[in-house]
Fold:
Amino acid sequence: MIPKIIEAQRKLVPEMIELLQQRYKVLKFIEIAGPIGRRPLSQMASISERECRNVMEALRTEGLIRIAKEGATITSEGAAIIDTLGPSIDMWTGHGVQAKKLGDLLGIQSVHIVPGDCDENPVVKSLIGKEAAVEFMKQIGDGRIIAVTGGSSVAAIPLHIHPFENAEQMHFIAARGGVGEDIGLQANVIAASFAKASGGTYSTFHYPESLSAEAHEIFQREPTAIQMMELYEKTDCVLHGIGDAHHMASLRNTPEHERLLLQEKGAKGEAFGYYFDGKGNVVHRIRTVGIQTDQLKKVPLILAVAGGKSKASAIRSYMASAPRQTILVTDEGAARAMLAEMEG
Structure:
């Protein structure tokens, strides 16, 4: 509920809330992307350069940002303002109400919504990463084994991780083999990034996805594969992305007959090597050694990250069968599209 005094202020001076939201958004983008110049900042915040200059000057005057030749950066006081105002901004923008409604409709523990749409603004993916990082550090508790998948959304999380209490006891592992050709988005590399950022340790796991059925059977008996499967049974947290089914099939250079199969069966989303239709049914899976969907049910903390209006159907398809304890971090673009589909 919005406090009565805030509601009264909104009715008396409605432009105050709009101005507050605008300055908060600019400050948030500076925190994520700084040092940043006025022109790219105005594009991110969807305001004119003149408006952006006025907002930046107001923030500088209050000591919330620094402006130098290389661009604007946030101060410690500015960062504290963001932390303090975050929950209130969620209420005023309706994100809190949207998140609660979406979480109930999806049947999961909770949803966190960041402003923007990463389809239109790549910086929004960094906001998703930051929100997921904060949630991870807050929720992990005594967790020791953390499995991470690949993908650009998961790769955005360790950029906002810092050493915290007992982090040195955490061990990060790849939740499954690699996908695609961008080595920076592979699960092994991302696991190493988490370990470096937090001060923990990590294990690498290499599995070529083009193995035949016979080679796959042999690989499963290898000591490294057995060791990883044992770790999956003990996993305390999973951090994962959600892919569009057909985009993921393309990344994997999936044979044409399998792509047609995915199309015929109505595949929408992909996670952990499983393809899901609109009702959450598994319609196809690839041969891989990695964490399995039945193991997820026993994992105490699951953080899913995905955004962009174009991902709405993919997110919904996976969430239809996702474990109840899942926490979804997404953006306005995906959240609004999902709510429109589910309430329409």
Summary: The CA atoms of residues 16 and 273 lie 48 Å apart. The chain is about 50% helix and 15% strand.
